[in-house]
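Work Package 3 (structural annotation) set out to generate three-dimensional models for the target panel prioritized at the project kickoff. During this period the team completed the workflow that converts sequence records into discrete structure tokens, so that structures can be stored uniformly alongside our sequence database. As a representative example, we reproduce one entry of 280 residues exactly as it appears in the project archive.
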Amino acid sequence: MDVNGDAGAHRLKSATSVWLAAIAVLGTLAFHGYLRADWLYDDHVLIVESSWYERPLAFGDLTSDLGKPLTGRKIGYWRPGELLLFRAAHAVFAKDPFGWRALTLSLHLAAAFALFFWARRILGDERSAGLAALLFAVHPAHGEIIAVANQMNSAAEGLLVFLALYFFTRGSLTAGAGACAAAVALRESGVMIPFAMFWLALTDKGRRSEHRRAAVASFAVVICYLAARTAVVGLSVQSASSPILCLPALAFPSRSRHAPLFCRCRLFYRSVTDRRTAGR
């Protein structure tokens, strides 16, 4: 009987439990004040005033512009996953803003858990993974996601993105591709998954071939998504607003020679999309 091995496994399990508890408690404390707020901004149009929730769900709803079933007009998004998520939230909480926000907060915390396990796997360091996930859980950039109920899809997408990255880094191509497909069905910014896997293939020489296969699989999912999206609302991908785009920079070793290049590319992308948005 390996007593030392059992003791080490027990310490690892205990440390993991401490990090997960800290993420859950501090993340809840950071955003619990939003839970009692009333509906805000687009919540009124997309949730409160929409009669779509009282109608039977039709397949045509999932193959049309997001705005058609919710508001009766096109708004330039194709997000079938968001419609299903909203329908599920309404089935449980009706039009109670507290319930919607509580679900959003739960999804956000679950995303932080998924980030922890993914970061721990690629870094091999529980402390660094815990700090990255804890920062993600309490960062004030997520305040809008919790406060505005119709931003629930951002929290759900974050969870699915981190699950996809976790499954891919474990070599589970089928599970990773499924999570990737669900992520892009919720929000367009899920298309960043293949690029994260490609970057891993560049930086993690020990598992380069494994990460390349994952990058190819996720690129195939994104290509299928873009083809379907083109048929519904056109090819352009809306500029991403989710904070998840900055997280690969937290999760990879800063000593990597590819990290500065990635940061410059990300900042350039954000500056271009911000200028495009300001010019509209």
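The chain has 14 helices and no strands.
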